[in-house]
Every structure is written in structure tokens, then in C-alpha cells.
TrEMBL record:
<dbReference type="GO" id="GO:0005886">
    <property type="term" value="C:plasma membrane"/>
</dbReference>
<feature type="transmembrane region" description="Helical">
    <location>
        <begin position="465"/>
        <end position="489"/>
    </location>
</feature>
<dbReference type="GO" id="GO:0042910">
    <property type="term" value="F:xenobiotic transmembrane transporter activity"/>
</dbReference>
<dbReference type="Pfam" id="PF00873">
    <property type="entry name" value="ACR_tran"/>
</dbReference>
<keyword id="KW-0812">Transmembrane</keyword>
<feature type="transmembrane region" description="Helical">
    <location>
        <begin position="16"/>
        <end position="33"/>
    </location>
</feature>
<keyword id="KW-1133">Transmembrane helix</keyword>
<dbReference type="InterPro" id="IPR001036">
    <property type="entry name" value="Acrflvin-R"/>
</dbReference>
<keyword id="KW-0472">Membrane</keyword>
<feature type="transmembrane region" description="Helical">
    <location>
        <begin position="428"/>
        <end position="453"/>
    </location>
</feature>
<feature type="transmembrane region" description="Helical">
    <location>
        <begin position="362"/>
        <end position="383"/>
    </location>
</feature>
<feature type="transmembrane region" description="Helical">
    <location>
        <begin position="389"/>
        <end position="407"/>
    </location>
</feature>
<protein>
    <submittedName>
        <fullName>Acriflavin resistance protein</fullName>
    </submittedName>
</protein>
<dbReference type="InterPro" id="IPR027463">
    <property type="entry name" value="AcrB_DN_DC_subdom"/>
</dbReference>
<feature type="transmembrane region" description="Helical">
    <location>
        <begin position="526"/>
        <end position="545"/>
    </location>
</feature>
Amino acid sequence: MKNLNLTEWALRHKQLVYYFIFITFIMGIFSYLRLGRMEDPDFVIRQMIVSVSWPGASARQVEEQVTDKIEKKLQDTPGLDYLKSYSKPGQAVIYVTLDDNVAEKDIRPTWLEVRNMVNDIKGTLPQGVTGIAFNDRFDDTFGCIYALTADGFTYEEMRDRAEKIRRTLLGVPDVKKVELIGVQEEKIYIEMESNKLAQLGVDPNLIVSTIKNQEAMAASGMIETSSDNVYLRVSGMFDNTDDIRNLPVRANDRTFRLGDIARVERSYADPIDPQMYYNGQPAIGIAISMNAGGNILDMGAGLNKAVAQIKKDLPLGLELSQVSNQPKVVETSISEFVESLREAIIIVLVVSFLSLGMRSGLVVALCIPLVIAGTFTCMQLMGIDLHKISLGALIIALGLLVDDAIIATEMMSVKLEQGWDRFKAACFAYTATAFPMLTGTLITCAGFIPIGFAKGNGAEFCRSLFPVVAIALLLSWVVSVFVTPLLGFKLIKTKENLGHDTDIYDTKFYRLFRKTLVYCLCHRKLVIGATIVCFTGSLFLFKFIKQEFFPSSLRPELIVEMTLPEGASLQAAKDEAQRFAENLAGDPDIENYSYYVGKGSPRFVLTVEPNLAANNYAQFVIVAKNLEARKALHEKVNTLFAESFPNVHGHVKVILTGPPSPYPVMLRVTGYDHDKVREIARQVRNVIAANPHAANTNFDWNEKSKAMHLTVDQNKARMLGIDSQALAANLQSHLSGAALSEFREQDKTVDIVFRLDRQDRQDLSHIPI
């Protein structure tokens, strides 16, 4: 440091330093405009979902024949942390979670290997296992969600309009994916009365085969002429529901129209599909996710422009409302940072001007935007976007980066007041302070190293804290040795003819400071004792400070989860959700609310984990007007669950700042004996519930779902030519319905479903076998 004086080099090459100052400002401005904007930093979600369907199997059969086999195979997954599975009647859901040490670049190849391993054992699974699905895009975040509500329109008309809106929004820059939520699938039901069929002597299987053959898609041949290929098309395909009603059915030497012996109705799926509601009205949700590295503010502006045009074209009775607006949240965060930056500069200016004087304070103030501009440039080069963590790091750095400039300026001012010439005073500031400043800067940066190189989602979430702080502080040191002396050389003026022997510290303030310092040095035991007492007292008071690594978010959303007993129908969940919504109507603390029946909301924030579909589940997303309103709503909802919803398990939570976690404390009890596991789990629950700090203690697996067992006399069944498979298939088709064919209409297909009349479905004795 003594042999190479960087300040001296800067003063001898002023024009080059001015050039780099100008270039840094220009690059910083362009980098700031091009930096990606998002609410939360990206972190890798090392989780994949494997779901398998086995229609007709019980939960125990699914567990033993499907889930266990797949889990045993997946235990060979490289980098596996743990497997978690749910076995339900007819379905297995397996969560594959990788260890935090698995690098991001290895995750996609690992998911491909998981697919291959499951496909390798597909042949060992029982017959009838279908629908093996893999979801390795569990981290898609739909930051913008719109709700399309209607007055006087059907679900299908809403879906049709929502599909057109989806195609329009896909053209907005930075939009990656647009999904529709709460769509109700249309079906054409053919319902027959068993009594009428018996009177006419019509075999239901005859009707089934007639419909299948009529709508079957088959090639009819081609005639090759001298100039063209002419394809033959056979008429008779269904064009509308009237064609289905008019379908002739030949039975017992008689011909009937299908509409004469059955009711043909175009309706929606029964039981209903998962639904979405906005402010109590049925809605079709339109969820939008952003491309990786995109600017959410630009996307938000593009969406606002597109939505404004869409609203102009909407028919009277349709309304498009925004449910989640992440661009606005990010814009608020950016505005808060700019405001904090402005306040920091003003504070530094005031303190610097009061303590250093007008010109010395101006030197310090001019260095701040230069360091910030350089930091933005480095962030752009390193791919660090503007989000909660990087903005927080910049605000932390603002309080530290001015120290080096103040030290260099103060040292130069002191030497100038002692009569030194400008060039020598500036060079001495480097000789005396450059190495101590660099050492202090590196020590401060080292304090953030554990965050920068730790493992886990929490560390990934905070990872940008270390590089941003380190960049800002190192740049502040570079500026203090190159730029600060140069600006001080031009701007700082001091009193003339003070001489080398002038004592600039002979003032009232410094005399009082010296007297205090001498007293402390002469009474060392007293000072050290007081220090120990203060330190001990601080340790005692530390326990009164709330400790949490990731605090609650400042977003106004309140998330309310409603879980009915296992086996409850989706209709029951819908009824309870509607009853809950009635209690929210007209609440002055609510800006708006949406709720989802049969499935949770899409991931509208990266730190919120979506819930998979479940018939006994409903979720509310309530947007409060402010944080005080959110707190009042939290208390109101807890009171509602305690007083008005005894059969519903309610869970109220706010969005966290950090990786998601359903509950603060979660324990797992495992074992081979199901009853013993339940018994131990109840004991653990009782111990936890006894803790006064614990609330809402519950299980995620305990209840048994209801089932009706039909005992078949196998001897009689064989004599009648009926086997168990045929009986089960008949029950399935007559009670729940069986898809016979497809009705093709424009760009969609509608299943044609055969089942018994509703009254007959309530009485098993009327089912024809």
C-alpha cells in the first residue's frame, strides 16, 4: 500500500478517472432499467409429485400394491432426501424430495431418472393401474390472477370467453404460461329408468353398443382419380344433443328413439369439479406466470394495457377482476427502496454538512450515487435481480458505504487545515487510511459469507445478500481511494496560514471528549465492570425478543384453509365454504376475497406452497385493506371456526418471507402397524397440545373414510353367469357413470356418459345386471 499510491495515480490521471466516473453512471442507469424485478428471489424447489390411479382399489390395496412398490424403486434416486406419500381409494400420490446439496443443474436430469425408474416397474404394477402422472413444475408462480365473473352466463360461456382472454394474454411480453382455474367440464348424460327398460325389454348394453358404434371414428376409404384423392366420409356423427336424442335403437323387433327411453341432458361434471369463487360469485380464474429473468413491472404494464382492451370488449354481464397483483407489490418494494435511498442520502448530506462542512459533505454525497451505479452494473453482470433480498442488501450497504468516503475526506481536510498542500494531503489520506479501510471492509463482507455459501432453501432465498453487500462495500473502498480524493482536491477549501503547528483539536467539544476519555482510562475497573453488567443485562433481555429467521410478510393476504373429515364430499366442502363466505360478506376490513373448493389456489407467491386437489378441502385468500385489518380478520376467523364450524378443521396463516412451511412445528410418526402408529401419534399430539405455546394441533392422516361393502354370494353369481368384475363394472357405469363416446364440437370434446336415473341410483336393487 505504501509503495503504490493509488490516489497519487488518480490525481495524475484525472481525465481517465473522470471518464470512468461518467461510464459508471451511464452503465448504472442502463443496468437499473434492465434489471429483473420480482417480489421474492428464486430458490430451487427440489420436489416432484408422482400420482398413480388405480380405479376401484381401496386405500390399503393402493398402499400395498402401488405406493410401496414405487417407493422402493425411488429409494435409489440419486440425491434423495425423503419420500412422502398419500394412499387414497383409487389413487396414490408420492412426493419425491431431493437433498439440499443437489445442485440446481442436476435437478432436471434427476427428475428424468425418476420418470424412467417408475416406467421401468410399470409392468409389475397390478392390472388396471392407469394414469401415471409426473409434476416436476411445482415451482411455477402465477403472480397475476384474474377472476372472470358473470351475471346470466353459464359456466361454459364463461370458459369460452376465458379461453379467448387466455390466448390474448399469452401475447403479452414476458408471459410464460396462462392457466384457467375452476373450469367445469361439460358432459352429456344419458340417464335411463330401470323400470322403463324392464317394461320395454331393452338391454342397457344394447344401447351402450349402439352409441359407441354410431360415434366411432373410422376411416371410410379413399378413391384415387386421375387428378385427385377423394376421401369418403360417412354421415351419422353427432352434431348436437338432438342427434343423440334421435338416435334409433333397435330392440325386440322394435325401433325406439333414444330420447323416448332415456333422458339426454348436457350438463357439467357430477360430482362437480374443483371450483373458484370471487367475492362469493362463481368465477373462472386466469392465472399468469412470468418467464425466468423477466421484468414483472414490464409484464404488469403489458397486462394492464391488454386487460383494459379486453374489458372494453366484454359483453354486458361479464366482469374481469384482478385477484392477485404481484407487479404492484414489486413496484411498491422498488418505491420503498428509492425512498430509503433518498432518505439515506439526505441524512448523510445533513450529517456530513453539519460535521464536515458544506464542501466536504458534498464530496461524500457525490460518492453515494456513484457506488450505487457501480453496484447496479455488477448486479446486471452477475444476474442478480431486484427483489426483497437484494433491495434489503442495498439498504444495509447504504449505511456502510459512506464510511470510507468520510474517513478519506476527513483525513484530507485535517491535513489541509494543518497547512499541507492539496496534492500532498490527498496522497497522505491514502497512505494513512487505505489499508485500515480495506481491512474493515473485508471483515464486514466476511460477516455475510455464511449466508452466501450455506445450503438449503433458506440460504438460497438469502443468497444474494452476500454478493450485493460485498460489491457495494468493495466499490465504496475503490471510490474512496480513486474518486473521493479527486473530488476533495477540487472542492475542499480550508482556512489559509494555519501552519503545521496549529492544533485543530483545541476546541470545546474535543476538550470535553478528551476529559471523558481520560476519566475512563483512569477508572478502568469501573468501566469494565459497567460493560460486563450491560452485557449480562442484554443477554437477559434477549429472551424477550421474538426469534424467527423469516418473519411474516407485509402482504395483506390472509390464507384460510378448511378441511372437512376424510371422505367428505366436494359438495359438502362447497356448502361449508359458502357458509363461511356469508360471514365475510360486507366486512369493512376486506378489500376482496376469493376461495377455491376442492383444490387450493395456484402458487401466486413463490413462498406459498399450493395444495393438491382433495374433495374435503377449501381455501380462502382474503385480501385485507391493511396490516391492522389483516390482524382483526385473523382474530375474527379464529372465532368463527371455534363457534360456528365445529366439524371443520380451520387453519389461518399469513404469507411468510422465505421458503414455505405449512406449520411452524411438524412431527412424523412412522411404523408398520397402522393402529399402533395412530396410537403413538395421539400420544404425541397430547404432549404437544399440553404446551401453552402450541395451538391448532392436528393430524394429516388419521381418519378412516366411509365405505359400503357388498357381500356377493359367489355361487349364485356363477350360476347366473355373473362375475365380480362384471358386477363392479355395472355398478360403476350405473351409479357413477361410464364414458361411452365423445361428442366433438369445434376445438373441444365432451364425454357422453351413461348412467341410471338419479332415483334409481339411490336404490341399488334397481340396478340391472
